[in-house]
Design brief:
Length: 308
């Protein structure tokens, strides 16, 4: 199997089969009442049952899928847009690990498509939701709709001296802080900002988000705006939990697999593999807790894992 095909299989397994599908299951299961282990889960389900009509429930069900996919899009857009974070995969028989950006320079758009099937259509266990919208907008070939590189947000002074480093060097802590900050601002916060903006009637920033919005049922934004006014925190909480589940599961799998590396450039030089620096638990756990990335770097409230 060619090297880039091997890379695609690994990326598809980690980010689509594992992280995407489990996040959608978690988000949809939350609003269906499948999770009642914590008071916050029960409160969300009870609010949805009392305030959402059937059509609004369906809208939220579908929106969870689109928000998770946009978070994945933004995650790949981050890897595409900077040379200071490199997602590397070691392949059997290869002398050097492969940078996924080298194989897939159009990484964000690789998620979509049916004719030349994108990663969601190939690897997800869920029905592909975008075929009609892509056809209507002539997006069957993702190469015809390139995505401009991100304007990366400015970084604070790192490493952060106010948190416990758990035996890490200043260089290792700076790398963790930098990766976590960009993951929160470019993936987590940006995804919510974009969908709230679309719901408010603003023009989507790129054709791919416009396509996702078009794939939803007509009038969805107006229906969910009404519900949001009634239950202002419920909908955003559900969407954030789905995003956080995707990030957690992707980071957990990356951390668990020997073939994956995340290299980060710092002011002190390169940290060759972020997953191998000293940690209290693992890379996924860096999201949560009082000193976690969500608490320190995100502009939105912390996830369900922190609230209990």
């Amino acid at each position: 199997m060619p090297a880039c095909q091997q890379v695609q299989e690994k990326v598809g397994t980690t980010f689509i089969k594992y992280a995407r599908d489990s996040a959608i299951y978690r988000g949809q299961g939350l609003i269906e009442g499948l999770y009642n282990h914590f008071d916050s889960d029960r409160e969300i389900f009870e609010a949805i049952v009392s305030a959402f009509s059937v059509s609004e429930f369906i809208d939220l069900h579908q929106l969870i899928v689109r928000v998770v996919d946009r978070a994945l899009f933004n995650c790949f857009h981050l890897f595409q847009s900077t040379d200071e974070i490199r997602f590397l995969i070691s392949l059997e028989g290869a002398d050097e690990p492969v940078n996924i950006k080298r194989c897939f320079p159009d990484m964000p758009q690789c998620l979509f498509g049916t004719n030349n099937p994108g990663w969601i259509a190939q690897y997800s266990s869920y029905v592909y939701p975008y075929a009609r919208a892509e056809d209507a907008m002539s997006l069957l070939d993702y190469r015809k709709a390139p995505v401009a590189p991100l304007q990366m947000p400015s970084l604070p002074a790192f490493p952060d001296p106010s948190v416990e480093w758990h035996g890490r060097t200043a260089q290792q802590q700076e790398a963790l802080d930098k990766f976590g900050f960009w993951l929160m601002r470019v993936v987590r916060d940006k995804t919510i900002d974009e969908w709230l903006s679309v719901m408010a009637g603003y023009e989507p920033p790129d054709v791919w988000l416009a396509m996702q919005a078009r794939s939803l049922l007509e009038g969805w934004a107006e229906r969910l705006q009404r519900v949001q006014r009634l239950e202002e925190d419920v909908m955003i909480t559900v969407l954030l939990e789905a995003i956080d589940a995707m990030l957690h599961d992707a980071l957990y799998d990356i951390d668990a697999r020997e073939e994956y590396r995340i290299a980060v450039k710092t002011s002190r030089g390169w940290v060759a593999d972020l997953t191998r620096v000293p940690m209290l638990v693992n890379l996924a756990a860096e999201l949560f807790g009082e000193d976690g990335w969500i608490a320190r770097f995100s502009r939105y409230p912390r996830a369900w894992v922190d609230r209990e």
